[in-house]
Design goal:
- It contains 13 helices and 15 strands.
- With 342 residues, the protein is α/β, with parallel strands linked by helices.
- The protein has 2 domains: 161 residues, Quinone Oxidoreductase, Chain A, domain 1 (Alpha-Beta Complex), CATH 3.90.180.10; 143 residues, NAD(P)-binding Rossmann-like Domain (Rossmann fold), CATH 3.40.50.
- The longest helix is centred in the C-terminal third of the chain and has 16 residues.
- The radius of gyration is 21 Å and the shape is globular.
- It binds NADP nicotinamide-adenine-dinucleotide phosphate.
Length: 342
């Protein structure tokens, strides 16, 4: 496919950050971009699919650590086919390849028919991956891999995971099974708990009941998890911290409740040697060498191809149906990702 320039294509554009999620997503417009020529060192990816992750929602609210110059094209990951390469890029290595893409800088994101990328933003996809699988291969799988290594380094035989209907949690469970680690889950909805039954969690605790504190306390005493992966934060973290065994670690990797962590007693940090830290995938990528990343990528690919993880898709929409897709995703996140198809 020969690309002729100037190339005109459609993108989703966010005009302004808005803390109100609904207003933020309703403000998104589909507009045209024109690319005069391909810069040296760049690759042009014809996008096939791109998901919405919680980080994209936080970005639209202006509450993420990536702040782009507005108006901006959202989308931190996706997949597509490399259709052109600029000067200084080995075309024979890239043209026609399906790639997973990652976009975290100030440049346009993945919610666009075409994306300009540097080679570091692209990972050639396994030739058996469908676009649905390749589009979500960067953010959640590697996060779960990085997290599970932290549990293994801590010698945890059991881990505790909240927001357990999430895709990160799906990978965490699959990796835990591989490494012989037990997983206790917390979810906020009855239907999510039902969906997870029979998947292999030691216990699934439902957080929206008034009996939550009692139930989680009993579960922590029974299963003794020494790593708690927290994607929710708020007062739930304090309730759990109080009841974790000595020498436990809390790794906070999300803030879905939108609340500050509260209720952690200072004496616990001192005398029960509780540690609490954050996890950021970008830092994890930067800290690990190419060999580790290759091993992680191969293992995660195996989990996908063997269907240990299913990466369910809740809804697929065109760029023009983005608002409908986002509304659906926000109402049923555990069901699966919203994918924009181009
Ligand atoms: N730190 C990092 O580098 C990093 C990287 C990747 C992902 N993450 C984080 O990992 C988490 C999961 O991401 P994902 O893409 O796997 O999610 P996902 O598949 O889109 O699912 C989101 C999950 O969160 C649950 N949830 C949403 N709001 C909640 C709340 N207020 N309280 C409790 N549960 C809530 C949803 O449950 P319902 O079905 O009940 O709505 C759903 O199970 C997110 O916080 C994301 O930001 C962090």
């Amino acid at each position: 496919m020969k690309i002729s320039y100037p190339l005109t294509y459609q993108v989703a554009e966010l005009p302004v950050y808005n803390i109100n999620t609904l207003r933020a997503l309703l403000s998104i417009r589909v507009v045209e971009r024109s690319l005069k020529s391909l810069p040296a060192g760049a690759l042009l990816v014809k996008m096939e699919a791109a998901p919405c992750n919680p980080s994209d929602i936080a970005f639209m609210q202006g509450g993420y650590n990536v702040i782009k110059t507005l108006p901006a094209v959202p989308g931190f990951e996706g997949c597509g086919i490399v259709v052109d390469t600029g000067k200084d890029v080995d075309a024979s290595k890239w043209i026609g390849k399906q790639v997973s893409c990652f976009a975290q800088g100030d440049s346009d994101g993945t919610w666009a028919e075409y994306m300009l990328a540097s080679p570091e933003q692209l990972l050639p996809a396994h030739d058996q991956f469908t676009p649905e699988q390749a589009a979500v291969f960067f953010v959640n799988p590697f996060t779960a891999y990085g997290l599970i290594q932290a549990a293994r380094n801590h010698n945890s035989k059991t881990i505790l995971v909240n927001a357990a209907g999430s895709r990160v949690s799906e990978y965490l469970l699959a990796l835990s099974k591989m490494y012989g680690i037990d997983v206790v889950a917390i979810v906020r909805r009855k239907q999510t708990a039902e969906m997870l039954s029979g998947k292999g969690f030691k216990a699934v605790i439902f957080s929206s009941e008034p009996t939550f504190e009692e139930e989680i306390t009993a579960a922590l005493q029974t299963y003794q998890p020494t790593t708690f992966f927290d994607a929710v934060a708020g007062e739930q973290t304090g309730i759990i911290a109080k009841n974790l065994p000595e020498n436990s670690q809390i790794i906070v990797y999300g803030g879905l409740s939108g609340k500050d962590i509260s209720g952690i007693n200072a004496l616990q940090l001192i005398f029960k040697k509780l540690t609490i830290m954050g996890f950021d995938l970008n830092v994890w990528f930067a800290r690990n060498n190419p060999q580790t990343l290759k091993e992680a990528s191969e293992l995660l690919t195996k989990l996908i191809l063997s269907q240990e993880v299913l990466n369910p898709v809740g809804i697929q929409v065109s760029l023009n149906e983005l608002v409908k897709g986002l509304r659906h995703y926000l109402g049923a996140m555990s069901e699966g990702k919203m994918l924009i198809r181009f």
